[in-house]
Design brief:
This protein is α/β, with parallel strands linked by helices and about 230 residues long. It has one domain: Rossmann fold. It is built from eight helices and eight strands; from the N terminus they run ααβαβαβαβαβααβββ. Helix 2 runs parallel beside helix 3 and helix 6 crosses helix 8. The two termini are about 30 Å apart.
Length: about 230
């Protein structure tokens, strides 16, 4: 695999990989927002029959949700335990999703197919070079294909909300899940996309209520946000 991998991040998620499909466990927030994320992707393109790549697929939550919309899904992740969990759950759910233990650059070197849609959600803030990851994803995307990215803005509010609040006050995420310096301004993400020949179309903020565990999209990019764009021809 390429060097754009933080082994500490791999170890972190490897240690809790068995909890991916526990809706009340460490990944509860992802279980809440997952239907919202999948619906957002499906609202931008008819997924029926589309070839979709889920980069940093974890235990397969998004991959399975996109499969439910009719997409042909491949999921990749650099944490082997995540892939094993995803494969096992897909088998139990009778879903034909291909899961591979590798990163985007390695997939690019081993496959000649191009994808209609690439999703890389809650991943870019966990790698040493997010710009390079987005470039690698773009190289796997067909011209005119759509790329979806989500991450966390970098400011005092996001530090208080996504780290102090989520990890230490409300305990809805394991301590150490996020590192503030890896958070990404929307303008930075847009720059990375442009460099990778992906034209930004829309940014949407996402609000997560840690008390009621409800979530919805809005226009506030202050903390969590999702961006999507189109690969230039």
């Amino acid at each position: 695999m390429s060097s754009n991998i933080d082994q500490n991040e791999v170890n972190k998620f490897s240690n809790i990989a068995e909890k991916w499909w526990d809706p009340k466990g460490e990944f509860k927030p992802l279980h809440v927002i997952n239907p919202l994320r999948a619906k957002y992707v499906a609202s931008k393109i008819n997924l029926d029959g589309k070839l979709v790549l889920d980069v940093g697929c974890g235990g397969g939550l998004l991959s399975e949700a996109l499969d439910d919309y009719g997409a042909t899904v491949m999921g990749i992740d650099v944490t082997e335990k995540n892939i094993n969990v995803a494969k096992h759950h897909a088998e139990q759910s009778n879903k034909s999703i291909e899961y591979l233990h590798l990163d985007a650059k390695s997939l690019m070197q081993s496959k000649e197919e191009f994808f209609d849609v690439i999703c890389c959600l809650e991943v870019v803030e966990h790698v040493p070079d997010p710009s390079k990851l987005i470039e690698d994803c773009s190289n796997l995307l067909r011209p005119g294909g759509l790329m979806f990215l989500s991450t966390i803005n970098r400011n005092l509010r996001s530090f208080i909300t996504a780290i102090i609040g989520a990890e230490y006050i409300f305990n809805i995420l394991p301590k150490g899940t996020h590192e503030y310096e890896k958070f990404i301004h929307p303008s930075e993400l847009a720059s990375y996309m442009s460099k990778a020949q992906v034209r930004l179309i829309e940014n949407k903020g996402m609000f997560y209520n840690p008390i009621t565990h409800n979530a919805h999209f809005n226009n506030d990019l202050g903390v969590n946000y999702i961006s999507y764009g189109k690969k230039e021809s």
